[in-house]
Amino acid sequence: MDSERVKTGVIGLDDKIEGGFIRGSINFVTGTTGTGKTAFCASFLYAGIMKGEKGLYITTEEREEDIKADIRSMFSWDFDEFEKHGLMRFVSIKPDIPAKMITGEDVSKVIKLYMYELTKKIEEEIKKFKAKRLVVDSVSLVELFIKDEYLRKIALMQLIDRLKDLNITAVLTGAIPEGQEALSTTGIIEFLTDSVIKLDFVPVAEEFKRTLTVRKMRRTDHSILIHPFEITKEGVKVIEIVE
Amino acid sequence: MDSERVKTGVIGLDDKIEGGFIRGSINFVTGTTGTGKTAFCASFLYAGIMKGEKGLYITTEEREEDIKADIRSMFSWDFDEFEKHGLMRFVSIKPDIPAKMITGEDVSKVIKLYMYELTKKIEEEIKKFKAKRLVVDSVSLVELFIKDEYLRKIALMQLIDRLKDLNITAVLTGAIPEGQEALSTTGIIEFLTDSVIKLDFVPVAEEFKRTLTVRKMRRTDHSILIHPFEITKEGVKVIEIVE
Amino acid sequence: MDSERVKTGVIGLDDKIEGGFIRGSINFVTGTTGTGKTAFCASFLYAGIMKGEKGLYITTEEREEDIKADIRSMFSWDFDEFEKHGLMRFVSIKPDIPAKMITGEDVSKVIKLYMYELTKKIEEEIKKFKAKRLVVDSVSLVELFIKDEYLRKIALMQLIDRLKDLNITAVLTGAIPEGQEALSTTGIIEFLTDSVIKLDFVPVAEEFKRTLTVRKMRRTDHSILIHPFEITKEGVKVIEIVE
Amino acid sequence: MDSERVKTGVIGLDDKIEGGFIRGSINFVTGTTGTGKTAFCASFLYAGIMKGEKGLYITTEEREEDIKADIRSMFSWDFDEFEKHGLMRFVSIKPDIPAKMITGEDVSKVIKLYMYELTKKIEEEIKKFKAKRLVVDSVSLVELFIKDEYLRKIALMQLIDRLKDLNITAVLTGAIPEGQEALSTTGIIEFLTDSVIKLDFVPVAEEFKRTLTVRKMRRTDHSILIHPFEITKEGVKVIEIVE
Amino acid sequence: MDSERVKTGVIGLDDKIEGGFIRGSINFVTGTTGTGKTAFCASFLYAGIMKGEKGLYITTEEREEDIKADIRSMFSWDFDEFEKHGLMRFVSIKPDIPAKMITGEDVSKVIKLYMYELTKKIEEEIKKFKAKRLVVDSVSLVELFIKDEYLRKIALMQLIDRLKDLNITAVLTGAIPEGQEALSTTGIIEFLTDSVIKLDFVPVAEEFKRTLTVRKMRRTDHSILIHPFEITKEGVKVIEIVE
Amino acid sequence: MDSERVKTGVIGLDDKIEGGFIRGSINFVTGTTGTGKTAFCASFLYAGIMKGEKGLYITTEEREEDIKADIRSMFSWDFDEFEKHGLMRFVSIKPDIPAKMITGEDVSKVIKLYMYELTKKIEEEIKKFKAKRLVVDSVSLVELFIKDEYLRKIALMQLIDRLKDLNITAVLTGAIPEGQEALSTTGIIEFLTDSVIKLDFVPVAEEFKRTLTVRKMRRTDHSILIHPFEITKEGVKVIEIVE
């Protein structure tokens, strides 16, 4: 309980995990497609900015303008303004796969190079920009495009090891394939990160319901409830259940 | 919420997704065989024509006359008339596999060439025809006939990347193998598209019921209900549930 | 609704699929072993004969005399008489695998040759005999004996493509391995055919019940009910449920 | 209904399958270990003897004296006496695998040779002994010890083809691995035989219950009930359910 | 029912299986880890000693002193005393895998040698010691450490064939991997042994309950109930259910 | 019952397993991520210190300062003080995988070397430090990073064999992949250890509940209840259920 905490930015979550994420921890937010992972990430960075902590948003799947539009559409915050004032940076690091159909071997090389670049670029950006919070949304491309299952594990372990050395509080997002009970595609990232937060989108009668569960948080006496949540204009918001 | 919207053409759906698809987005409509994907696509193009937006319907599985007959049989719209007036084009792009039994390697080459042709032809048609809406029905052939699972992923990623560059609003259809909980055969396309709409055909007592769920829609505060729907003469129609 | 229909021969089914199968369509009737597929096929051909349409019954698993005995045992119709009058033909096309145990490679060649012969023979018979209706009962041998999963898909696609060119209304039967939720062994044939009809044999309390479901039918506003059915002397008969 | 029937020997079963097995048919009796397959086989041969039809019991898993002891322990019939009077023959045909650990290749050869011998020996015995009924208990060894999954299918198809040529009424037993929904290990034998009878041993509250289901029977309007049965001194006995 | 029976040593079990195991039979006792297999084995040997039949306990997983301590902790019997009086022998036959990490090939050789030694040693001990009862606890090491799945089957078949030739009443224990419905790892041993007894440890509300089921017993009209049981100081004890 | 027991340190557990772990036993504590395994380990070592038994905590996944912070955050104990007084040692033994992406082969060598080092270092530490209690938290890295499934089994067997020779009471932790029913990744460690304790985190209505089950304990008449537990400041605590 003596570890320093940083606000997660998710309204109603911090008091369920002893005040927030541990400073310097690597946190894993996972769920199937469309469960609210990007909303979580944006809320996390917004909370940092409110405290004067610079935020770096790495997107591996979308263009910078698209991810910004995604966030703008969800929340009332003016991230463009934050970016102009140097409080925030969006960086898209997508693998560049050549247009004509190539062999799996070629792609593998492209991805290996990509992983190397990704790690290096994150390091450079953090040092140059002096970010205190990092989002990598998502690591699923790594999981999907490194062909050898075993090398995939190694690549993720190396990425997380580097991030731990950088003394930044980070949120990585992952992807759970629909219809599986796993926490990630590789089944290893959840053992390497300091926390695991699972977002679900579960059918209840004629409706889907969003829920958030803290599946693990080191050094923390965390909530073990399944929390319903909403995405509101003011950020992701855990709904309090009155008993 | 500031992104421009285009009507989906599905009656009752637009007000559940902040007005429609985002202009320029790539949307994925998925379901097992016979769940109404072609009906969805036709409704989408019809809505465009009503707004003066030209539509291009690429079919990878049927002959042009067959897909037109399919649509004619479902709806009261006169697509032939639209085509004559240059508002609409149907193009069948099927892989041409030689008659005598050949090796998997040969087929693989045919399919690679096919993917290349498919992408190129779509580009040409869009530029020449100045289409504003595109349907690719379906990408499942790609998923089924590229032998190497890994190259399948790459091929889909490349196709979607090209489409994103073309500034067209598109609907791609996919196929979920019966009895699986996945959103697609490859398990990747749902991460690359801007939205995922799942059509189901679920047994309820002695009957099957059609349902539509928006599983993901970027930049959109979308409905999280499981919506029953019908295929009516006037188009696909989401049934309002009175509570 | 403007497509010409041919009676399915299954009593009570036609009014649930806008009048019958579409003329010239390729239809897939699938189910686990013993669910009534052969009964469906015979009913289909019988309905043709009653309209003066010649029928061709290709069996890939039984001898001609056995399949005829099967049908004779189920129905009151005199198919021998029909055959004598040139309204009907039964042809058994079984793969001829040599007696002494051979290698998988040898078998593979035998089967490839078989597929080629099967397609050619069907074409010849149809042209010579001027059949209007075709049954291929079943394609499961193809699915079970082409060793390479990928070539199996290609072989089925080629067979169906040829049949579509022949302008015949066809019923192909398939086999679902017991205890699986799939519609076929290959998971592709259901995407290539114009309709999919699934027969089930489901345990209900102390009994098994036969049911028929139209899982897909192009150009058709088909029933979405799970229909119980019986095999009666007068043909396969869908039981009307009074509500 | 015009096919000649032979009594199955299972009390209460014949009137549920139009009088018995079809003369000359190949029947498959399947179930997990300990579900009563051997009891079924013995009842089948006993019924033949009572009609003056000689019976041949091939065991592939036990010694002749053991299988005879098995049957003696279950039923009040004196099979030794039948054997002495030339009405019955028990033949054990087990594969002879050398004592010192050998390679998979070697074993494979032994098994191929075994399959060849098995088929030949059955033919010889039937011709010499003029048996009218045959039991092969079981074909599961074939399924378990032919290494290549594909050759296993071929071997079974060849065995069944040979048996069909021999004009004998046969019961083959198979084995369903515990906890699987399949009808056999290979998933093919059930398509090749004329009937499939499944024996189950299902937990009901604090007890296991034996049930018999006719899953398929060609040329036969068979029961579709799940029949409880017992193994009594007088033979396997289907229990009539009073409604 | 004419076969000679030997007491199983499990209190309350013998009257459910016509008096006990068949003399000379090979019996398989299986279950997940911690279900009471060792307790069953000890009870079986104790019953033999009470009848003057010498017992041989082969352990493949523990040291002799550990297995003896296991049994001592469970029961009030003085096996040390029995051993001193020559009524009983405990032999630990563990594979000796060299300390430094070696290749799979090397390990495979070690295990093959081990299997050979195991079989030979059992034979020698039985002959020298004139044991009437044998326990091999367990055969799961064989299942886990023979790399090739196919050779694993052969090895087990050979072991059981040798034991059958030795005219000893034996209990082999096996291991079911947690969360699987199988009766053994290889899925073959249950077809080769004369009986299969399954021990379960099933969650019932807030508790786990021990149950024993006779899944198969040749030449025996066995109980088909699911019997709860306890491990008491006087031996494994089946609990009678009063109805 | 005559074996010497050591307190587990888990409040309320000892009286359910005849007084504690057996001195010198190797115990396996398993569960999915975040189920309280580290808390169990710390409680185990604390109980030792209270009895004057030195404890060695090997962490294979975290840095020494991190694991210490983890424990500090959970409990009121001053492990730093214990360490200063020589009652306790924390040693982090993580594999050192080079930064630039390497091949699977290279990684495999690194891990083999690592396993060798791990075993050697544990031996050295135990001898030098005279520890009486050992924790290895966790063996899951071994399970995840030895590529060949078979060598993984061997490596674990060798590690456990060495530990048994060292006469130390040990707790090894393992990892169960989310959504699987297994007790470990390899499916073998549970057969090799003297006990298996499973921690669960199960959803009950809107909440997750922690439970502990003793799945196996040699030489011990152990509880077979599913025990709810809490992580309190005073240690892991089994909740007594009043009946």
Report on this structure.
6 copies of one chain form a homohexamer. Chain A is of the alpha/beta class and 243 residues long. In chain A, 35% of the residues lie in helices and 26% in strands. Chain A has 7 helices and 11 strands. Chain A has helices spanning 37-50, 64-74, 79-84, 104-129, 140-145, 149-165, 189-192; strands at residues 5-6, 21-22, 26-31, 55-59, 88-92, 133-137, 169-175, 195-204, 207-217, 226-232, 235-238. In chain A, strands 5-4-6-7-3-8-9-10-11 form a 9-stranded mixed β-sheet, with helices on both faces. Chain A has a two-stranded antiparallel sheet with strand order 1-2. The radius of gyration of chain A is 18 Å and the shape is globular. The A-B interface holds A 33-34, 38, 61, 66, 69-70, 72-74, 97, 99-104, 107, 138, 140-141, 144-145, 147, 175, 177-180, 201, 203, 206-210, 231 and B 1-3, 112, 115-116, 148, 150-151, 153-155, 157-158, 162, 180-183, 187-188, 190-192, 196, 213, 215-221, 224-226, 241.
